[in-house]
Amino acid sequence: MVVWQRIFLALFVLGLSACGGGEPIKATPALVEEAYQWNQRAESAYRRGDLEVALDASRRALDLYRSLEDSDGVARELANLSSIHAARGETGQAVSVLAPILADGGAPFQSRHRAEAAYRIAVIEASRNTASAGEWLARAERHCQPECDVLGRILNLRARLLLGGKQVAEAQALARRASALHEKRGDRQEQANSLRLLGDIALANASPAEAREHFHRALAIDKDEAVPFKIFSDLIGIGRSFSAEGRRADALMHFRRARAVAQATGDTQGISEADRLLTNDGR
Amino acid sequence: MSILRDDDVRFRGLSRKIGFFVIFAVSAIVLTVLAIGVKQEIFTARTDFFFVSENARDLAIGTPVKLSGFTIGRVKKIELTDKADVRVTVSINNDYLKWVREGTRVRLLKEGLIGNAILDLEPGEGKALAVNSRIEFQRERGLTQVVDELHGEIVPIIKDLKRIVSYIENPQGDVKQMIHRANELFGALQGTQKKVDRLLDAANAELPATLRRGREAVEGGKKVVDSLQRTWPIRGNIEPPKPALLPMDSYDTRPRTVDQNGKKP
After folding, report:
1. Co-location of A47 and A70 in the same domain
2. Global pTM?
3. Residue B235 Cα, gap to closest chain A Cα (Å)
4. Residue A17, in any domain of the structure
5. Is A101 inside a domain boundary?
6. So what's the ipTM on this one?
7. Residue pLDDT, tens place only, A250-283
């Protein structure tokens, strides 16, 4: 072995030892590990629709995070509990469980926690009281200055509320902004929501071809993400765009496809909506 | 001239005494005959009917005809017909004719298993039958017939049993071969069981230590992995596990009849 080879080997070994000399090994505390396990169980139970198990697991995780005074963990589990209650149809509890995050003088929650909580309440309220939803959304926006993780979703929901209030131009501007933001962040589900919203706005602007383009893009994403009730909405949107152009056969075909999706998931509300559109030719 | 003296007082009124005696004796005989006749129902008014049987087995003149255990008549005549059947005439006391109507049937049966044969009359419900009408006849199965039937059924079973036993007993038959092989298998299993027992004993001695070493190896491996995770450049490529935040989709503003996965809550 020549001298330069020995020098290179010595330097290589020295380099390796330097790489291994990072911060000392620190084991995850048992309680943190246990809280993480409960969180994972809650999530998997929620995904498979076992909401009872999800509720129990999330409460256990919450207790553990509270015992550690982990505000991140507590805020996350309260948000999870809200989602589970909402999925169970318990909207009252879904809202009240988030109250500690928004309460003044409580645990030291950060603005991003409060923005998330206010946004979630706005989503729940949007299905029953749009005025209240608007107020909660405004509160979420205040906590989200200048920007936060939930901003894109806030924009989407705000645009939807504006469209519901016939403020089409304002809704379109927000939806476009939200779509660009989601595309940049790689949040595909929310990007599909923005596109679907833009489709609805285009229909309101009597531009069925443009609407169809947005719905088709949303449908492609929703199929990738495998979200049946959104696939249903995309198909209904495409059907309505055909109906607006007087293409009755194409419209009915898409309404039938939407009905089949709703039927497969047991979505009685979706079935009724598709039946109504099939009967009234998309009106 | 008289042989005996007419003036003997013992012979006075002899003719009258003999007359009384003869009258008394004849009256006694007549009464006896009448009593026997009454007893034998010779003077009872009867009506004849008939039935036809395949044969005369257990039938005889005088065989009683009974209704609910009471004798109401008897077999009067048995004769062969031109078709080689047996025509049996029964006489029924007129007092009991009200039960002999259309649909009446007589059954030949035994009183008890080996008792005398009787004809049991089952009353009909139709119109009263005319004299010398035909009534239905049925011969009940007797003990002999029952035994014959049983014999006919049991004999094939016994033959089958004999055949099965001989099949089982055949040294070259499947059953014997199977039992032989099962015995060999059980013998081999005993050897296997001993080996398994020895293995378990050995495992009992070594398993805890093996488990302990395994746990130590896993813990050691975890430390190595932890070290690697903190080693440049690997640590830059490993994301620490993050607890999940369940989504609240901005589009999910419909009344909640389904959850985010499209399932009913």
Report:
1. yes
2. 0.54
3. 10
4. no
5. yes
6. 0.74
7. 999 999 999 999 999 888 989 999 999 998 876 6
